Amino acid sequence: MKKITGLILTAVLLLSTAFSSYAVVDYLDEAIAAVKAKKDTVAVYNDMSEDDFKAAVQALIPEEYNITLDYDYTSNFKVYNATAEKEGSVSANFLFTQKTGEKYDFTQHYLVRIVIPKAGTDVDAKAALEEDVNNVLAALDVMNMSNMTGYITVRDVAQAACKKGTVLGWKGDAVDIEKATTEKAGYFKGTLRAVNGVAETDIDIKLTIPKLCLCKDVNKSDYFAEAVEWALQRNITSGISETEFAPKNTCTRAQILTFLWRAVNSPVSAIENPFADINGGHYYYYPAMWAYEKNMISGNEFAANTPCTRASTVVYLWKNAGSPDVGTVSTFTDVPANADYAKAVAWAVKNGITSGTSETTFSPDMTCTRGQIVTFLKRAI
């Protein structure tokens, strides 16, 4: 009887061990099933590390299963980068190990592969393109057109307004410019091809070039009359209306640098915008970039509406001329020899661009009018 009882007990123990072992194996199967079911929710990326990937997969396994992961071989860890054209993937052979607390642990192998979505999907590209197109239209809406503005400048102003990676190019040879006169307005027309990832669209550009000013506030006897006519004919500036030039209005920093930029054929600078207060939608965006590149201005704010002083005016013109040293020292009592504008004043006076406000003063802080600025420009260019 004892022998039979012993056999029964042994059988029970074996069965319980077998059930126990089977339960552990079930946990491994359940852990792998959990990974299979949840792996599509894991965020994976192109430069994912081995540790990152293991932690991401481990997080898919319920904690109560007490199952740990490790790589079968780290050489099995693979990352195929995604691009805007194709999906990528992260994959590895894992060892799923159930810690039993007994002499033996149970282990299973499983290859885990998770898809990395395309870097830019159709939906993302179209949304980014739509936002950029709106930015371009807003930028062009405030662009100050003139007869001298070429299609390259228009495209570059539009490109500067793109913040979502859209690339612009002219579509065909459809750019058309008709110059304005004092009798009629002109126009600029063209079509840009806009591409962002897999999304594309066309942007039709139609910009009006205002009539040249038939200025009733400029008399032939005015000292600035010839300079105003020169500036209007070359589209260096226009009037504030069809009949007003406003020669006595204060000239701002944005205005003088734009006038000077146009006078030297509107060069396009490729530097990154250093100013926090302007963007590609401002008519003075490229003049500001050009002036910064030529060291006419500095800092991280452009302050477009700052009144232009006599000192800053001669500095802009002097630096545009290459900062020549004329070898003379100003005799003006209000121009210190060590002033940062002293050489510019000496150059301007020697070249007849401007003179002092009296025999002994230059008045460097006096603000300049639009009439004065175009006069200085004509003499300097």
Radius of gyration: 37 Å
Low-confidence spans: 1-22
Which range best describes the helical content: under 10%, 10-25%, 25-40%, 40-55%, 55-70% or over 70%? 25-40%
Count of helical stretches: 10
Q: Name the structural class.
A: alpha+beta
Share in β-strands = 15-25%
Distance between the first and last residues' Cα: 123 Å
Overall mean confidence score, pLDDT: 86
Describe, in plain words, how this protein is organized in 3D.
The chain is built from 10 helices and 8 strands. The strands form 2 sheets. Strands 1, 2, 3 and 4 form a 4-stranded antiparallel sheet that branches. The model is unreliable at 1-22 (pLDDT under 50). Among the domains are: 2-119; 120-211, no CATH class. The chain has helices at 2-38, 50-58, 122-141, 151-160, 225-233, 253-263, 285-293, 310-320, 342-350, 370-380, and strands at 67-71, 78-80, 88-98, 106-116, 167-170, 176-178, 186-196, 199-209. The N and C termini lie far apart (123 Å). The chain is 36% helix and 15% strand. It has 381 residues and is an alpha+beta fold. α6 packs parallel to α10 (370-380).
Note the main attributes of this structure.
381 residues; alpha+beta; 4-stranded antiparallel β-sheet; 10 helices; disordered N terminus
